[in-house]
Design brief:
Helices cover about 30% and strands about 15% of the residues. The protein has about 210 residues and is an alpha+beta fold. It has a three-stranded antiparallel β-sheet with strand order 3-7-8, with no helix packed on it. α2 crosses α3. It is globular.
């Protein structure tokens, strides 16, 4: 017989509101795991740092959705596997995503729509990207007990054999079989980036979504 869990799980509160996971029904979401990301973000503050270095030229008096609420919803959605902006048409009413952006869930006040987020992304400049990269590097350095004197990055690709007709399927001459060629970036024993892309006959890498 199935041993059902009836004990609630308590997370960090949102102002005076408690955030509790239980099994009694009510307002439902399929992405409750995002609350674990929120606990990590509350310690790191990475999302707020990234949102803070992106220039927003809009007049605050003429907008309802500030970049401070838009970027967290976009970043957390991507972290949960929703890369397509169209997903936000439904996600903007998701109670967990609202909590992740620091707003109480409300059917009358949904999160930013797909068009709003699209315009926000398209306004990002090269300067914004440089500042975001600096934030990520500083966050990585802060993960050490003491700042390292230098960071040495190791770029390494390895074959991932395939045996069907997957999109982007190519034959790689060096490995002598059909494969993808994921690129890994390490700093010491820490994996920083893992990209996946098709391998061409001459071996260069075509990066895909991470």
């Amino acid at each position: 017989m199935t041993d059902c869990n009836s004990k609630p799980m308590f997370f960090s509160s949102l102002g005076r509101k408690k955030i509790v996971a239980d099994f009694t029904g009510g307002t439902l979401t399929s992405d409750a795991g995002g609350l674990l990301l929120r606990e990590v973000e509350r310690r790191l503050g990475l999302v707020d740092q990234l949102a803070g270095v992106i220039n927003d030229p809009r007049d605050p008096a003429r907008i309802n959705m500030t970049s401070g609420s838009c970027w967290p919803s976009r970043i957390f959605a991507i972290a949960m596997g929703y890369e397509d902006l169209n997903d936000h048409q439904a996600l903007r009413s998701d109670p967990v995503l609202a909590v992740l952006t620091g707003r109480p869930p409300s059917a009358d006040e949904p999160l930013a729509s797909s068009p709003t987020l699209c315009r926000l992304e398209n306004r990002v400049t090269r300067g914004d990207l440089a500042r975001m990269s600096r934030v990520l590097v500083e966050q990585f350095i802060a993960s050490y007990e003491s700042p390292p004197e230098e960071l040495i990055l190791d770029f390494d690709a390895t074959d991932d054999p395939i045996h069907g007709n997957q999109e982007g399927r190519f034959f790689h001459g060096y490995y002598d079989h059909h494969c993808f060629l994921p690129l890994y970036v390490f700093c010491g024993s820490r994996l920083l980036v893992s990209t996946c892309g098709p391998a061409t006959s001459t071996g260069p890498i075509t990066p895909g979504p991470s």
